[in-house]
Design a protein that fits this description.
The chain is of the alpha/beta class. It folds into two domains: 234 residues, Alpha-Beta Barrel (TIM Barrel); 105 residues, no CATH class. It contains 14 helices and ten strands. The protein has an eight-stranded parallel beta barrel, surrounded by seven helices. A two-stranded antiparallel sheet has the order 9-10. The protein starts with a strand and ends with a helix. The structure holds flavin mononucleotide (FMN). Flavin mononucleotide (FMN) binds next to strand 2 and helix 8.
């Protein structure tokens, strides 16, 4: 059973994927956030900048595209093959109205003719390595069932299924009954995605749907970056007794993971505003790993400079018992040497 990182645009970018795979175990690979193909015409190679370093990296990353033009998809496949990739995923689930209304993302499977053309083009462009990520439907939870036969006509490497409709966005419940209905109808290996926030969740999915070939986790891993380790342990049949020491250690690892990311983003992004945005997005998930996280998040989101944000982060982490080591940002988002600063968690409380 493979455990994969799901794409979260603006969050699971190259530095996140790389740092997560280096600092935490349990993951077998990742699907990158989508690159938009645009309308008919030349596909600029720069849309794949985020995955450029992944083509020959040790951690398997699969690029994802979104679009509805088969020629652009063929062109994307050619570019990705030239970059060294042998896999490509088509986003057929993006729920945003402005995307779906144009027949992209979750809007694509609504149009059977356009959908089939894209399946054909994708399988041609990336032989043996083309996959789709899809929801149950845009409005109806039956659309995927209705497209099963069509999907089975194409040699897909796998199908990632997020059992919600697009209308649900990310709210409400995943429809596991609908997933259970469609699973035996699909010939390609199926990867389950949705609402796995704990090892228990993953074990329950694996037990209920033994024929799935993997699970893909997005928000759960952004909230608790060590989650795949716990899942891998549980799925290998070992038990995982509650341990306050391990929890504390994991929180400390999550804090240092975020610090390492902040360092990388600060050297990549120009100016404080993009850095602030990126870190706020990251902490909108990661705060959940810390006790008192909600109050901590409010402070983080109120921050108007990277220095203030990092101070809020340290306050949050220290309040949850992490021994934090110090401000890494000078004004403007540059790094400064901070090895001598140290804040005691107890002092912060
Ligand atoms: C902020 C955000 C950005 C997302 N970006 C993408 C994306 O680029 N491509 C994609 O296929 N799904 C995207 N998703 C959907 C996730 O990959 C995933 O299907 C969804 O969050 C459900 O899985 P989870 O419950 O494990 O998070 C995004 C979701 C969120 C919340």
């Amino acid at each position: 059973m493979r455990i994969l990182l799901a794409p979260l645009r603006g969050v699971t970018l190259a530095p996140f994927r790389r740092t997560l795979s280096l600092r935490f175990g349990g993951l077998d690979g990742a699907l990158a956030p989508f690159a938009a193909l645009g309308g008919p015409g030349r596909v600029p190679a720069k849309i794949f900048a985020d995955v450029a370093a992944d083509a020959r990296g040790e951690f398997p990353v699969e690029p994802q595209v979104i679009g509805r033009d088969p020629d652009s998809l063929r062109e994307a496949g050619r570019i990705l093959r030239d970059m060294g990739f042998s896999r490509m995923n088509l986003n057929c689930g993006c729920p945003w109205k402005f995307v779906a209304r144009k027949g992209r993302g979750s809007g694509l499977p609504e149009d059977p003719v356009a959908f089939e053309r894209m399946l054909e083009a994708g399988c041609e462009a990336m032989p043996g390595g083309f996959s789709v990520k899809i929801r149950l439907g845009r409005h109806s939870p039956r659309t995927l069932e209705e497209r099963a036969e069509m999907l089975n006509r194409h040699p897909l490497r796998c199908i990632v299924v997020h059992p919600r409709t697009a209308d649900q966005m990310y709210g409400g419940r995943v429809d596991l009954d609908a997933f259970g209905r469609v699973l035996p109808m699909l010939r390609a290996p199926v990867i389950y995605n949705g609402d796995i926030f704990s090892a228990d969740d993953a074990v329950a999915i694996a037990a209920r749907f033994p024929s799935i070939s993997g699970i893909m986790i997005g928000r759960g891993l952004c909230m608790r970056p060590w989650l795949a380790e716990e899942i891998a342990t549980r799925l290998s049949g070992k038990s995982l007794l509650p341990s306050p020491e391990r929890e504390a250690e994991n929180r400390a690892r999550a804090f240092h993971f975020a610090e390492a990311l902040a360092e990388q983003y600060s050297s990549q992004l120009f100016g404080p505003a993009p850095l602030l945005g990126r870190l706020k997005e990251l902490w909108s998930y990661l705060h959940a790993a810390f006790e008192g996280g909600d109050e901590g998040l409010r402070r983080i989101l109120r921050s108007t400079t990277p220095e203030a944000l990092l101070a809020a982060v340290r306050f949050l982490a220290a309040g949850a018992g992490v021994d934090v080591t110090q401000p890494r940002f000078a004004r403007g988002g540059e790094l400064r040497d901070c090895s001598s600063d140290r804040i005691d968690g107890a002092q912060q409380r």
